[in-house]
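User: Can you write out an input/output pair for a complex, sequences first and structure second?

Assistant: Here is one pair. Inputs:
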Amino acid sequence: MRFSELHLIRYGQFDGCLLAFPQTASDLHVVYGPNEAGKSTTMAAVADLLFGFPHVAAYDFQFDKLLLRVGGVIQGSGPPLTCRRKRGNVRTLLDAADQPIDDGRLTAFLAGQTRESFLRAFSLDHARLREGGRSMLEAKDDIGQAIFAAGSGLVGVTRLAEALEEEARAIWSERASASRSYYVAQKAYEEARTRLRETQLKSAHWAELKKILEGHERELEDLRAQREALQTALQRTERRRRVLTPLARRAHLLEELAALGEVPDMPADARAILDRAARVIAESETKARLAREQGEAARKLLGDLTYDPALLDRRAQVTQLRAQQGAVDKAIRDTPGLEAKAATAGAQLLRLLKEVGWPEAPARDVQARLPGRPQLSELRDLLEEQRALEGNRDAAMAELDEQSRLAADLRRQLDRLPRTAVTAAFSAVLQTVRAQGDLEAAAFAARGRHDKARRALDAALAGLTPWNGTEDELATLPIPSEAETYRLAETLLAAEQDLADAEQALIQLRDEREHRDLRREQLLRDEHAISSDMLQDARQARDATWRQLAGHLSGVAELESVEIAGARFSEELRAADELADRRFDGARTSAALVGLDQDLQRIDLALAQAQRRRQAAEAALGAARHAWTCAVDVVGGPLTPDGLKAWRTSLQRALELTEAERTERDEAARLAQTVTTARTQLAGVLPPAIVEALSDGSLTTLLQAAGDLEAAARELRDQTVAMEGRIEAAETARQRAEGRRDEANRRLEAWRNRWVAGLAAAGLDMASSLPLIRARLDLMDELRSLAGTILGYEQRIEDIGNDVGAFSAQIQALATDFDVAAQDGDPSDTLSAIEQRLATVATLAERADGLRTRVREAEARENEAKEAIEVANGALSPLLLAAQVGGRAELPGVIERVERAMLLKTEVDELTRSALELGDGLALDALLKEARLADPAELAAESDRLQDQLRTVSSEIERIAELRQAAFLQFKQADDRPDAAIAAADVAQARAEMEAQAEAYVRKRSEAALLRWTVERYRREKQAPLLKRASAIFAELTLGRYAALGVDVEDGRPHLSGIRDDGATAVPVSGMSEGTIDQLFLSLRLAAVEESVAGGVKLPFLADDLFINYDDARSAAGFRVLAKLAEQTQVLFFTHHEHLADLARETLRPANVSTCRLGELKMEAA
Amino acid sequence: MNNFKFLHTADIHLDSPLRGLSRYEGVPVDQVRLATRAALNNLIDCAIEEAVTFVVIAGDLFDGEWDNFSTGLHFCGAMRRLDEAGIEVYVAYGNHDAESLQTKRLPLPKNVHAFSSKSAQTFVHERSGTALHGQSYKSRDPGGDLSAAYPAALPGRLNIGVLHTALEGGRPPHAAYAPCSPAQLAAKGYDYWALGHVHTHEVITEAPHIVFPGNLQGRNIRECGPKGAVLVSVENGAVTSLEFRAFDAVRWSHVQINVATCASLSEVEILTREALETAFADDAEGRPLVARVTLRGKTALHGELTQRLSVWREEVRALSAAVSDQLWIEKVRIKTEAADQGVADPANADEITHLLDEGVDQPELRDVLAADFGLLFGRVPPELADDNEILGAAKAGAYETLLKDAAASLRARLAEGAD
């Protein structure tokens, strides 16, 4: 419905005011008036006209509430409706003559809307727009819930994308960090490269170090030769001092040994042998006597014992009989019980025999007369089978009836279905268009992408400063290769490092020289060192004076005063000698001075070389800088290596964006053409009536109509096919039921034949009923069981009698063997007497065995003691023979003399060995000779002198050795050490790790980006139509600053956000400006209104100054959006800004918008 | 003329680092670092043990860009050992040596004879009656066939030509320096051509013997298998036998495993372990073995393997440690393909995984990756991408492979999450 006129007859401040809304191409009308002109009143009037006046009176401040009237001319289907509304409860809708009319037509226009829903959705001022917007964001209403539907289900995937991004960042990001694995590898790489630079060895450096080392080694060699000679002399002197004392003591002992005379040759342990033998003989004699006495006592006790050993062999038989005793006693106790059970079962058997009608008989005879078990079992099976067969037959007959009735019902339903179809051409076109996807959306997106690509390219070109040109020029720019610039940058870096190294070396050498200069000055000043130059100068002065004196004496030259010259010569001679003496007195200081002078020469040489190296490094750096400047000149200005890296990245980006922009431009054009073609094709195959009835000719609308038509045809076809299928199934089921019934009848007949044969075989009456036969079968089973039980009892009683008799006979036989009298009646008592007798015999046998063992042990001990006495006597025989004495008592005196002689010899040997050890390997004779000539005092003095000399030389060796060691260490470090090779290997390893990490980053980043894209695409595709349309409106209202709306998942809940024009940045609502929030809420509301209109609720949309936070450009966009809505339903836009009316006309062209001033027209004039 | 032996070697590239092996727990760092030195020592040991008369080195003692005098000193030390054993050495410098500063400055021991770089030169080894003809490179590229100017064979002697060349047509990836044909060399009338430059051992012809010994130590995964020199026996003035001797201290092997038959990761693990055991047993010959493991074949595990690549790298390293403490993993590569999934109903396929496939050729996704990788390649050394397929593809903007792998990996990871 739409208003062609609105009549504010008597309402608020209005009196006969008319607003006319002519039909234009777009049904948008801008109504403007100053503040207090009555915009809100007009909007309220519209609601009152459509839904009636509310109970609470309003807008009656000028006219009495009974006189209030608001009316209009309403267009819809059919003729226009001219009506007006008054206050009241019933019949408030009036015609132009104020007469009540039926409100049925007006109610139909409202399509079920209420005053509240109309105000919330179709009649908005700024406050209601905001309130409604908030409700949607919190998903409090249906619209909000529809918006967020697409956000669900992606929480886990979004988290995975975040996790992947985090994993990628943990490997690499633009910002270096020690926690990122790539930078860890890079650090190792750089450290290894630094080590590599530090450890590389230059040839000149190596040669210089070698020369210094060789000089020190020669000097050291000379000094060591001196030290060796001194050490040899000192060693000889010290040796002579060491051996003097031991050799004197040795001579004294040899004299005492000679005084002892001849001694027999006896072993060293002769005294120990003698003592041990005497102790053994005494102990063994005592042991032999004791053993003999113990043996005799045991033999006497053994002779007093008597018993029969054969009785012990019957022990096992007695034990077995005692074990059987319990079982025999129990069997005797059980016998009466068994006899009673047999009698009870016999009585029961008699009762059953009477019941069957058979004569009384023993159990064994009854068993023989009963029919066999197989015959009875077969009869029971036949009875069960008969029941099942009859059940099957009844079920089959019931199923047969049911399926016959169902098939007939379905055939009747099939006949009632209508017939319809669509053409093959229609289906083909529809399928082709659909196969191309959402073409309009794709075309829109392609346009957006092209715009975006163009903007990105312009930005990239601007970022290429200092270079300035177009993308076409960029493609042919002669950029140096990446490898070349990398090499140049590396060269520059290395040259800078080399220069720094050279300067550092120069500083170190200068420091070293200053240090040596200071030390030299200190030696001369404080320690009065005499340099060779000073000595040389003094000697030259002396020689010059001497030459003058000599010339005078030989008559070659005349001197003025021989005395003065002589005195000067004497003084110069003394001074030179004194200097020489002081120089040699302070030899150590002088040597240090010489060393310092040599060092200074070496340092001066090194300084000159270092100076040359620095000049070379400066030249190399200049060349490297020049090469770098030439290489980067093409980019139009100076750039550092890092700057060029960044520039090259920007260049690559710009080149890629150039290509991307071309691709997007072509794609946008292609898609636009595809949309046009698809629309034409669809319009051609749809029935003309449907095409004419469509609200617009867009591809989406055409597709929707075609889809509806296709769906209706498909549904009909599906129904027919389903029905036919059900009929066929019912018929098949009926035939199957018929077959089952016939089969059941055939089986019943066969059963009867087998039943008759079975009865005859069991001897049962064929005329008996089936229940009677079943009872007879049970009785016969019971009889068989009872007869078996009775026979079992009888057999058990007979077995017990036999077992008791055999047990008593065995006990009686044993009693005879053990000579025990049988007890009256009870075999158990007899058995106890036998057991007692057996125990007595066993005790006696055990005691006899013990006595025999004691006799054997005593005999063995006696023999052992006798043998020991013989062995001890044997050990003493050699000693007696060597000492040449008659008995054991004379041996101790001889042994004492022999021991003293051995002691003296041992000490002499010890002193000889000690002298030889101290004698530096000289023979004993030579040592004795040296000792005879030595004077201890002279030896001490000589030793002191030699040690003094040795200390002086050693001190000098120590000093030179330190210098040599320092030089050696330097040279060693510069030898064929593998340090540089190791560093290079470490560089390669670290580089491999960098490569591995970079690769891992590329993989993770690819995964993260793909998953992000997928999530966004999923959301776009699954976006609710409502959100999709709101996105488009929002993009237009924000002039493209936002590309779309999206639903993000955060904290496990979906949130609405705006997607910026870069297509990636999401801005939450909380981050938007007030104006943007207004645009967002209007977008959502308009999308909802469009959806309602499409659903048949075609009410006018009223807006009261909704653009209060908009600038002109956004207001113009707002009018374009409203004009689009106005193509579907009427839009009345109220404003107090007159320029907005002008803006609307400018934006939409006058043909598409009408404007009117509130209060401008009066009803009379209309 | 006596019966004697000589050793023919080339392409020692002393102190050139082994590339591609990242350091990880337990890697035999010292052996890897000094492998080329160890290989040279092995050669010297063999020369002394076999009592060879001389050693011929046909170029590339050092790496061109390598400027460290210690390397030269180590070479001199090795040559001195030969001198002490009375063994002469004949060296023709190659393209790498020509670029090396130390080649010019090194004080060579007296037993080492380097061929002139100005013109072809002949050394006569009187004791064995051998004439050795050769020419060193003056610069990286000598500019044409050097052998043409070699002198004619000396009559009555064993004639050996020493030349650094890739022969006519080249042998990629070796640059085609000093090109010449086997026929041209044969026409000189020499008995033996000791060539260098090509890093693979090859006997080009046997009459005369034209031989590449290959390099002395493999330095990366492209130089797999045994590396060493050729021991040549001469009897009565004629070459009677050639024997290749391996001197490498660390060996490289590329273990390729087809996992198409595997139904689970456990089976892949078993197969990998078996393959590593076989490789170590067959290839290592008592040396440390550095292996690259590449999985191939169509398999349903493709996504899972791709997704677990970094974990899998550690697992393979652990497997190698279980096989031997002398087996090391250079890289693990997943070159499998996704198995055919049969006929799936698109309407019922999971929409996310369907979109993953669709994303592979999306321009906007390529823009995102181009921006990201642009930053990356602005920061990393450019040559990092030279031998790495993944980085090469990322640098060149060939994202299809990357995204296909990413899609497979994500499918596996999403399926894992769904479990």
